[in-house]
Backbone:
């Protein structure tokens, strides 16, 4: 093709930089293969700058050591470790803070239920959307091993409650594969307070309330053995969190301040982390300056590659 002097050839847009968060609670047996599979797949198939951040909360097994071994093989893997059990939601709230140098921020579960190619499919759908979420309940979804009947029943009951209370029109709020634009995350981050497994409702409703566009896409998913999710008390805590979130967006919540100590007591009695707005006693370490700052999480220990290395995905490069 001949190009005249007045014509210009536009360069293809660079792929957006991507931070993938993987929250983990006692995942020593499962997180290693997940980290390696994602890192290897990203190296081969994602042309943009990327980083994987494992966010550990309250782990008492060898999860941290497993992550360190994976990071030794793949410098793109980083870890931040919260000794206190801050919950999946608390871990993601903290992880989202660390995405300021990336265009996109996503997360998946540590068990590898969502394969890396399925997650990158969500990333490729981000054009025209602010958030893309995987769905196991849309036509075209591939479920290699479906959930057991009791978990599927609980999931559908939970979904019905969420739809009645929030009317978001989302088929699968709880699928552990989501990706968002950094601008959307920064806008809604102050509204994220739910620290348990109901965090996804908090995230999606905050995005909806702020006017961001959410796209739900069919995904590939495999139910994994060895889930750390326990029903019983945890289920009650999830329902409590959903009801509380509905109240937060009602005019009555301001009058419930005297009940906050009872709220914290009830969550702890159920063995779940209380909402962050009700318990702001935690600290994190600021990775960029190495100083301790008052924050909403347990004292965290960040393990990052040394600056100035040759990793193509180091933050700030």
Residues:
């Amino acid at each position: 093709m001949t190009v005249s002097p007045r014509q210009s050839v536009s360069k293809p847009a660079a792929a957006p930089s991507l931070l993938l968060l993987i929250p983990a609670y006692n995942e020593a047996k499962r997180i290693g293969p997940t980290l390696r599979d994602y890192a290897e797949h990203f190296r081969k198939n994602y042309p943009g700058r990327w980083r994987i951040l494992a966010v550990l909360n309250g782990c008492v097994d060898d999860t941290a050591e497993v992550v360190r071994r994976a990071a030794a093989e793949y410098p793109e893997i980083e870890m931040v470790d919260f000794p206190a059990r801050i919950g999946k939601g608390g871990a993601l709230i903290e992880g989202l803070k660390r995405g300021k140098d990336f265009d996109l921020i996503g997360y998946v579960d540590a068990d590898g239920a969502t394969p890396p190619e399925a997650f990158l499919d969500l990333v490729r759908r981000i054009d025209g959307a602010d958030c893309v979420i995987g769905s196991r309940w849309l036509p075209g979804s591939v479920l290699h091993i479906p959930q057991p009947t009791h978990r599927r029943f609980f999931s559908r009951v939970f979904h019905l409650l969420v739809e009645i209370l929030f009317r978001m029109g989302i088929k699968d709020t709880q699928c552990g594969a989501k990706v968002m634009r950094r601008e959307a995350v920064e806008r809604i981050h102050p509204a994220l307070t739910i620290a348990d497994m109901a965090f996804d409702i908090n995230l999606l409703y905050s995005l909806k309330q702020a006017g961001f566009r959410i796209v739900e896409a069919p995904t590939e998913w495999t139910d994994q053995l060895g889930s750390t999710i326990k029903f019983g008390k945890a289920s009650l805590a999830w329902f409590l969190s959903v009801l509380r979130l509905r109240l937060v967006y009602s005019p009555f919540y301001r009058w419930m301040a005297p009940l906050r100590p009872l709220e914290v007591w009830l969550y702890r009695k159920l063995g779940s982390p209380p909402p962050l707005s009700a318990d702001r006693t935690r600290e994190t370490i600021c990775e960029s300056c190495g100083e301790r700052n008052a924050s909403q999480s347990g004292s965290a220990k960040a393990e990052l590659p040394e600056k100035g290395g040759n990793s193509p995905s180091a933050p700030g490069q």
